[in-house]
Amino acid sequence: MKDKxxxxxxxxxxxxxxxETMKVVDGRVIFLEEHLDRLYDSxxxxxxxxxxxxxxxxxEILDYAQGMxxxxxRITVCDEGYNFSTREIPYQEEDYxxxxxxxxxxxxxxxxxxxxxxxTNYFASLYSxxxxxxxxxxxxxxxxxxxxxxxxxxxNLFFIEEDKVVTPKSDLGLLPGIIRGKVIEVAKELGxxxxxxxxxxxxxxxxxxxxxxxxxxDLIKVKEIEGVAYEEDNRLxxxxxxxxxxxxxxx
Length: 251
What we know:
The chain is α+β, with helices and mostly antiparallel strands. The chain has 7 helices and 13 strands. The chain folds into 2 domains: 79 residues, Aminotransferase class 4, branched-chain amino acid transferase, N-terminal domain (D-amino Acid Aminotransferase, Chain A, domain 1, 2-Layer Sandwich); 157 residues, Alpha-Beta Barrel (D-amino Acid Aminotransferase, Chain A, domain 2), CATH 3.20.10. 31% of the residues are buried.
């Protein structure tokens, strides 16, 4: 593991690299296998070298996480090697109680295969997140040039329409979020219909509720997107959220 990356690295010069951020609870790295699968698949697709096997890296992460609780553990990979770092998980109980307010991101997305990878070239997301925070919102919503809903700057999004869960189609250019995939699995296990769809920005008011996901926040309700208000106590969201937490954190 490297503690320093040189200015001659592709990470420093061009922002070329990949990262995964994982939640550690009571020494357990949540969904470690899924994060590593995504990382190594991305390394192969983008031809970024990493001279350590998935199995050996997994053991290093497990050793590194021993004794940690309620921390965010990040692994960053570039042409010069890899690095671990930790930070506090920023989400507080009041965030879950209040829910998220989203504004439209100041940038629209075109088509790029790179959006499906968790690359270190993250400035568009940071720029949009900071713009949202500056305006008093919690998150920014990306749409494409056709005003189809994509994802948040740091989250995947789900909507609830009656007894159905709707989320943007993956082939629109989304990050295949680990929690996004788990929510789809959980909903299906509960017998809830899941629709992968093209959602127009202009039709967001057709949904009764919405929620956002990522590997640190898990699931958090969305109470507003660009002036469209959503239910703050939705039965279906509560059911999915409770089942998810029982399945993941019952240890």
